[in-house]
Amino acid sequence: MNLGLEGKTALVLASSKGLGRAIAHGLALEGAKLMISSRSEAALKAAASEIRSLTGAQVAYQVCDLTEGEQIQALVEETARIYGTIDVLVNNAGGPPAGSFDVLVDQDWDYAFRLNLLSYIRAIREVLPHMRRNGQGRIVNIASYSVKQSIEGLILGNTMRTGIVGLAKTLSRELAADNILINTVGPGRIATDRVEHLDRRRSEELHLSYEEVRSLAEQDIPLGRYGTPQEFAKLVVFLCSQANTYTTGQVILVDGGLTAAL
Predict the structure, then answer these.
(1) Are 138 and 120 contacting, i.e. CB atoms less than 8 angstroms apart?
(2) 0.90 exceeded by the pTM?
(3) pLDDT tens per residue across span 174-185
(4) Edge-to-edge strand order for the sheet containing 33-38?
(5) How far is it, in rounded angstroms, from Cα 238 to Cα 235?
(6) How far is the CA of 260 from the CAs of 34, 59, 74, 169, 228, in angstroms?
(7) Which candidate, 87, 50, 43, places its Cα nearest to that of 64?
């Protein structure tokens, strides 16, 4: 299948490692021109170099703290300056801190809001003029399987991720006339640094080894294993592509069957 991404410009947030990097790599393999971002210039430089060497794609990068609106605006402006336009936006951000309701304070809630919901709103707002001029666009928001089934101990993420779904569903109707498609993709237990961190935290709480905690988690997954970032990226790349012409406003989980909710 020709995905029609050759020569398209894709901006992928939080993309120096993990899911974001896998998505950026997948888009590059299809011929997209990339702008990647994270808070670490060293990590971005390494990621950009590796993606270029493996794919031959054009890859630019810029440091961006997603909790700062001015930095998001500058990132979008620099992407458009380098490539002339923006065709694809992948909204992605690291997860907020774990914790139960009683231990979290206003600063925790404010940080989670700015990182995991307001950053998506700001990035969409900034790219829309470019997509509207093009007469088309693709936006994919990375969330979590918690949008269908809450995850114990992650109340901040559970709350902000569901906000992403409401945002995207509403925008899918508002942006349809501009031929801009927007969808939300939720990872399940994908083997990333974030998931390993949460597993190690749980191992301390349960006084079990990391290996035991992971084995227990895998028993809850019908496919019997954690997914890979590359497996997750495949769906995102399709939704970002010109091959996707009729899917918008949807929530799709990549979770190996983990989520029991309908």
Answers:
(1) no
(2) yes
(3) 999 999 999 999
(4) 59-63, 33-38, 9-12, 88-91, 137-142, 180-187, 251-254
(5) 5
(6) 36, 39, 41, 22, 20
(7) 43
